[in-house]
Design brief:
This protein is 43% helix and 16% strand. The protein is an alpha/beta fold and 381 residues long. The chain has a 7-stranded parallel β-sheet, with helices on both faces. The protein has a 6-stranded parallel β-sheet with strand order 10-9-8-11-12-13, sandwiched between helices.
């Protein structure tokens, strides 16, 4: 038997070897249905950029293109879009790109992307991971047969994880929960300068929503709430674009609040827009773990949002903001009025939001947890 000191040295050497293996760079391929501007798509680009900075080789393939293609490339990430309407040709193009990249891990970000992610995995040993960003209907979930070939399903909230386990109990053991993360971005201008650029009075009470403009984000509820508060110096800043933008612009005119609403469309200066705001609002009908809320918390804004999906896991009602049932303009108006009237409460909530986001929801923490899942390990709690 070797001396005890030699045994200990041997154990330490093996431990160090394992640690170095665990930290080896990976080739990570993210697959997403498009590179249009949406919460899921922006999540993919940010995670890929963070992973790239951690020493991995990362590529993003969008089955459709969009503005985020160039943003991904600008961040140093390999990125491409498959602009092909024919499904067979699209599949062949995807397989060609995926095979040439030689990924260790393929991370699909919705059920459509997962179907493509499975194509190049046959005959390879790439680990397949699916991120579940919301709470899709059962018909939109992958089949149990497909899930048998998936190494892990990442849910971005406990609510999403529970829904998945309920709908696919035979794959419940594959589910891990990793909440989204964000990092604070410094504004490029001061509050007054940004308001002047937007044509907003310096003493206005500004609420901002950053979201895709569709029927799920509650924009119509927000406009109707603003109409209830037309006697306040309230300005609503709508950041984002989508199919319903023209309908909402028309609704603002019908409610006689067009002067109180700024439809800005797609913007990249989110930090500036949040810095000039007094609160953040997201009256969605359904959600996962919205990056937009995390960004607003990182800027120290109180949150007024729907009590749905993963939002209550980010914001405690009465602490970091106010949560309320979706689809009720009167309740939303009351919540906005409360934080307008009570400035100390508003500032206290903003401070609490910043502290919690910095403590629990950083981009670095999220990327580290994804690293663990990619390696078949359990992420940190």
């Amino acid at each position: 038997m070797p001396p005890r000191t030699e045994v200990l040295v041997g154990r330490a050497t093996r431990a160090n070897t394992l640690e170095s293996v665990d930290r080896r760079p990976m080739r990570i391929l993210h697959v997403v249905s498009s590179l249009l501007v949406g919460g899921m798509e922006q999540f993919v680009v940010r995670l890929a950029a963070e992973q790239n900075g951690r020493g991995h080789t990362v590529k993003v393939i969008g089955l459709r293109g969009g503005p985020l293609l160039e943003r991904a490339r600008d961040s140093g990430v390999l990125a491409s879009a498959i602009e092909q309407d024919n499904k067979i040709l699209r599949s062949l193009a995807f397989m060609s790109q995926a095979w040439s990249f030689r990924p260790d891990v393929i991370n699909a970000h919705n059920p459509v992307a997962l179907r493509y992610a499975m194509l190049p995995s046959f005959g390879r040993k790439a680990r397949i991971v699916m991120t579940r960003h919301g709470q899709e209907e059962v018909r939109e979930l992958p089949s149990s047969r497909t899930l048998n070939k998936v190494g892990a399903v990442v849910a971005v909230s406990e609510a999403a994880a529970q829904a998945f386990r309920r709908h696919r109990p035979d794959s419940a053991d594959k589910v891990v929960m990793i909440r989204n993360g964000a990092d604070p971005a410094a504004p490029t201008k001061n509050r007054e300068a940004i308001r002047i650029d937007l044509g907003i009075a310096v003493d206005a009470f500004v609420g901002t929503i950053v979201a895709r403009v569709d029927h799920l984000k509650g924009h119509d509820t927000l406009l109707r709430a603003a109409a209830e508060l037309r006697n306040l110096p309230l300005v609503i800043v709508v950041v984002g674009d989508g199919a319903r933008r023209h309908d909402l612009e028309r609704l603002a005119k019908e409610l006689n609040i067009a002067q109180q609403v700024r439809f800005l469309g797609y913007r990249t200066d989110i930090a500036d827009l949040l810095a000039t705001s007094d609160f953040f609002v997201l009256p969605s009908l359904t959600e996962g773990t919205p990056l937009s809320i995390l960004e607003a918390m990182m800027q120290g804004l109180p949150i007024v949002a729907s009590d749905v999906g993963g939002i209550p896991e980010l914001v405690s009602n009465g602490k970091e903001g106010i949560l309320l049932p979706p689809g009720d303009p009167q309740l939303l108006a009351s919540a906005i009025y409360t934080i307008w009237r009570d400035e100390p409460l508003r500032l206290t909530m903003g401070d609490a939001a910043l502290a919690r986001a910095a403590r629990e929801f950083t981009l670095s923490q999220m990327a580290q947890n994804y690293d663990a899942v990619y390696r078949g390990q359990t992420p940190a709690a």
